[in-house]
Fold Thiamine pyrophosphokinase.
Amino acid sequence: MSEQGEVFERPDTVAVDPPSKRHHTIEPFAFLTSVKENEKKHNVLLISNQPFKINLKAIWVHCGLVVCSDGGANRLFDSFSNDQEREDYLPSYIVGDFDSLRDNVKDFYQSKGVKIIPQYGQYSNDFQKSIRCVQLHFSLLEQGRQWPYIDDDDGLKEIWENEMGGTSDIQIHIYALSVIGGRFDQSVQSINQLYILHQTEPNLHLFFITNDDLIFLLYKGVNYVTYPDRTVFCKDTSSPPLCGLLPLGNKSVVLNSFGFRYDIKNWLTEMMGQVSSSNRVVGEKGFIVECSEDITMNIELNL
């Protein structure tokens, strides 16, 4: 195998059937399409403290649980012009060390029955604390249990590890809004968590929503990424949506694909080597990527 591999150019639209062999099926845009209660009940919208332009209401209706990480509650509060509208879009939880949460925002949501969970420990960030809250929410719900006492320092971690064993089989899809952006070190840490959580808590399926794209992990093996059609996530039909395959883990990756403008075969990608960026999604209702290791993917959003 040469380092460059092979590249094949495709037209703007290609029909891609699901692979016949064993594969991972990924539906990254369920936060825009889930309608039935059993489809959306395990969809989680997690809002962090970075500006966003995306239509929040369009995502909200497809998610069964909403969690704000610290100052993410400020962003939610400020996205509405009046309290009547805010009351229609209440999160279930606000979690964090609250170094960013404004007092008026905290008081408003607390008065509306939102569960406020302070976690002042500094050995994990607000995003990680919110992830534990999500895991515990579904585990406690499945067991028919109420929330136990939560220590303000690192209580979520203690309950998750000591009472729940740090594992769950409940399949949860977390759509994290405005986690990527702002300080570069925090964005890198978030991508790091994308890889780590897949290894340590594989019941979680994590997707980062930015103002421009959706970022998620393709898993080692064959991946079939599917959607009703490309207009679900890209309203601009003048050209196929942009995408990238980014080797941000600790290993080089060999790729094979079907459903991109430039499909690849036996293509080695790694940092300090060749990286697939500015490709385009041409699969009509899905595409296939086979990878030798987990790899980060981004797809353009134009809603």
Observations:
- The mean pLDDT is 95.
- The longest helix spans residues 126-143.
- The chain has eight helices and 17 strands.
